[in-house]
Each structure stands twice: as C-alpha cells, then as structure tokens.
Amino acid sequence: MSPLKRILLGLGACAGMGFLNSCAVVGGAMQVAGTVTGDQGLSSTGASFTRAAQVQQFSDEEKMYTGRTVAANLLAQSRLSGRTALERYVGAVGQTVAQASQKPDLPQGWHFVLLDDHEVGAYSTPGGIVMVEENLVRLCQDEDELAGVLAHEVSHVALDHPMQAISASNQKAAFESLANWGYSKASQGSDLSSLQDQFKNVTADVGEAVNHGYDRDKENAADMEAVRICAQLGYDPRGLARVLRRLKSGDKSHGDPAARAAAVDQACAALPNLPQPSPVRTARFLAALR
Amino acid sequence: MRSLGWALAACLCLLSAAHADDTAQRRYVCVDGTRLLSRPAAFSKSLARLRKGQSLAASAPSRGYVHVSVDLASGTVTGYIPARALQDSRPKLDAGATASSDASAQEVAAATKGFNRQIEANLRASDTKGGYLKLDQALGRTGFSDPVAGLADWRSQGRIGEFQGGAQ
Question: What local confidence, expressed as pLDDT, does residue A178 receive?
Fold first, then answer.
C-alpha cells in the first residue's frame, strides 16, 4: 500500500469494525423505483458527460491493460489471501452481480481477488479486476450484504469511474501519443517511448483514484446501481446500507457513510417489492468464512 | 375490391416495417464475446456470442438493454444485449486482429499498437517488485470461463436470479 493510502486509512480508522476508504462501498443517482442506467449515471452534468464521452475513446482492451498495470502496482504492495475457498465464494457472488451489471462481458472477464492486508477496503480497476480485503468481507454479516458491497465495486467499473479519473491533460497527451504510434510508419523508438510514458501517466491517475476512492457523486452513482443490481437478482438491497452503517465517517469527500446509507434505504423504500435475506445464503456465507 | 383491400393491407405492413427500421440505429459491438440474450435479463438464454466490431440494428436502450437485430451466418437473429456493450462508431480492433469483412488494412495495422500486450511486456521487464507475477497468480485462480452456466446451480440454491418483484 502506498504511504498516502496508509495515512488516509489511518485517519479514517475507527474502533471495532473499521471503515472503507479506497472505495467507500456503494452511490446516489437513484431515479425512479431503483432503476438507473449507466447513461443516466454518466450524464448528470454537462462536464461529466463530456468526460464520459472522451472515455469512450479508450477501447475496452486499453482499459483492460490499464487496469492490469494498476492492479499489478497495487498487488506489489499487498498480500494475496491464502484462503482460496473464501476467495472462490467471493468470486461466485461477484460474478453473479457482475452479470447483472451494465458490463457483464469484458475482454478478460471479471476477477475477484481476495487480499489479506488487515485493512478494510476494496479496489476496482478498469477491465474488471476487483480486489477485496478479507476484513471487508468479515465486516459483512450475510451474503446479501457482501453482494451489495461487490455490486458497488462492479458498478464503478461498469460506469467507467476509474478511467474518468484520468486528468484532461494526460488524456489528451495519451490520445495524441496513441494516434502518433498507431498511424506512423516509423513507429519505433521515440514514439513507443512516448506512448509508454503516457501509459504510465494514465495508470498513475487511475491508480490514484482506485487507491483513494472517488468523489461523492460517483460513490452515490455506484450505490444506486448496486441497489438496482441487488434488487434485480433477488438480494436484499438494504444489505449495502447495513454495511455502510458499520463504517465510521472517514473521508467525507467520498460521502458520509451514514448519509449514503440513508440514501440507499430511501431508494429501497421506493422499490415495489423488496427481496428478503435467505437462510441458505446466510449459511453458505458463514461456512465460507470459517 | 377484395384484392384492393389486401394490397392496402400489404402496403400498411411494409410501411410499418419501414418505420420500425427507421427507429433502429446502426451500432457496433465494442466488447468481444458479448452474449446476445433471448430476454433483457442477465441470466436469460444466450442465443449467440457476438464479435467485437459486429454491426447491428439497435433500438433505443430500455432499462440497460437494447433490442437488436443482427445478421449472422445462420441468418438474422433478434435479441437483447447490454446497452454499454454497444457504441456508435466502429471500434478499434484488438491487438492481433486479422482483417474482417469491413476493416481497412490501416485499421488492422493500427490494431497491433496502443495500450496493449507490448506495452505491458515492456513494463513487466522492469518490474522489480513482482506485481505482475502476483497478478498472474491472482488471475489464474479467479477466472470463470462461463459464470452464467457454471454458477447456475449455486444461484438456484440461493434463489438468486431475476427477481420478478423488484426493480426490473
């Protein structure tokens, strides 16, 4: 973990259950009866629409390679969990919610990697690599809560939030570099070097966002999309609110967890018929944790 | 008189069909392997896998899905795909792509460049912290070749699927 992240985590640390910082789980652009499309989530303002449109210029493969490098940088400072059965279970829940997301199909598929850094957090990289700390899984009390957390992370990727973190100047430079490299017949040496530099800048911007989290609007958007996903699948969407209430108010720039939990509950209250937690799901969640 | 009625009915059908075509827009699949679904629902039957760059006629998105009509080798197939698997312009090809029916030679050449395997390979060569090795290890054990079919029993046991009473 980066020193900055450790400091941020330390500042947000709380007694007992801990908190989410890098990505304070789940969002707020709920429209009507729990249905929010990605387009709505991305176009709420003129500025975000423009940025979203620019993001479209990166292909899904470029996002994937960006995400792979961001993940590699994160993993270099993290410990992979040795609990493969728990990782498989988290993967099953994650794959399930990902299939109900707006991006079920990705070039390298979705991956849910379990980390053991004694922190509470989750990191979603472009291309669908979601890294989840074991302590975050333990913060959940049943499968429906875990589904809410993972649906929130999946929604960040599906809504392109990591790539929107690329600064305008780095984005422009990257596209110029890509264009030069892609169409120049003499694309060797300096062109490749320039492209590689731009790639590093892009992965640095994305890595910063993945590590330290997103602004309140993006967190809210991911929250609302998670509510939609959970409700559609039959998971109790209020599970996300329950997890949020166990978090301490850390960095308010990600949105106050209590306020976000209230927004999630409000969105759930507007749903015509709420799924309930299931004993079977809770039993297998507890079995996986053992 | 009766034949005139039939002719009018036929004209109306044709006009109706033409109107339907007008509302559909030519769009392109941007994610290789996108599933063409029988219903606008995550776990509905998969009718085909679509290749990146496949062009199709798409209606307006509704609740995250788009109704599409696509010409495949087996004929024209209609179904649904997630709205975010489509884009308005033909997508850039992937590294290693070969010329398809409507890709120019320049596009194929450009497809071998960009943020791709080559860039990653160069970074890997200078990776002294072992991040990429951990990445390989992690991805090797967390992939699902077909999460829809492979987890069907697991979902069924937990009564997870399309919840009819919720936000559809």
Answer: 66
Q: How many angstroms from the chain centroid is the CA of residue A263?
A: 19
**Claim to verify: residue B102 and residue B25 sit in the same structural domain:** yes
- Which H helix or E strand runs over A282? helix A279-289
State how far residue A73 is from chain B, nearest Cα, in angstroms.
6
- CA nearest neighbour of A207 among A12, A4, A49, A24: A4
Q: Is B37 part of a structural domain of the chain? A: yes
Domain of B129, in residue numbers: 116-142
From residue A246, how far is each of A120, A243, A256, B3, B59 by CA, in Å? 11, 5, 12, 74, 43
Asked, for residue B13, whether it belongs to a domain, the answer is: no
Query: In chain A, which residues have pLDDT < 50?
Result: 1-21, 24, 26-56, 183-187
Domain boundaries, chain A: 3-167+212-289
Residue ending a domain, choose from B62, B96, B111: B111
Question: Is residue B153 domain-resident?
Answer: no
pLDDT at A223: 96
B53 plus B104 within the same structural domain? yes
Cβ-Cβ contacts under 8 Å, A273 against chain B:
165-166
The reply to whether residue B158 touches residue A280, judged by beta carbons under 8 angstroms, is yes
What's the pTM?
A: 0.77
Taking residues B111-132, what's their average pLDDT?
A: 80
C-beta of residue A38 within 8 angstroms of C-beta of residue B84: yes
pLDDT digits (tens, 9 = 90+) for B141-155: 998 888 998 999 999
Interface of B with A in 47-76 (CB under 8 A): 52, 61, 63-64
Output the pLDDT for position A43. Answer: 32
Q: A65: closest CA among A104, A107, A101?
A: A107
Q: Is B126 part of the contact surface with chain A (CB cutoff 8 Å)?
A: no
Whether B90 and B138 share a structural domain: no
* Residue B110 confidence (pLDDT) above 70: no
What are the φ and ψ backbone dihedral angles of A154, each rounded to 5 degrees?
A: -60, -40
B91 in a structural domain:
yes
Q: Look at chain B and report how many structural domains it folds into.
A: 2
Q: Quick one: B136 and B81 in the same domain?
A: no
pLDDT digits 0-9 by tens, B122-131: 889 988 899 9
Strand partners, A112: A130
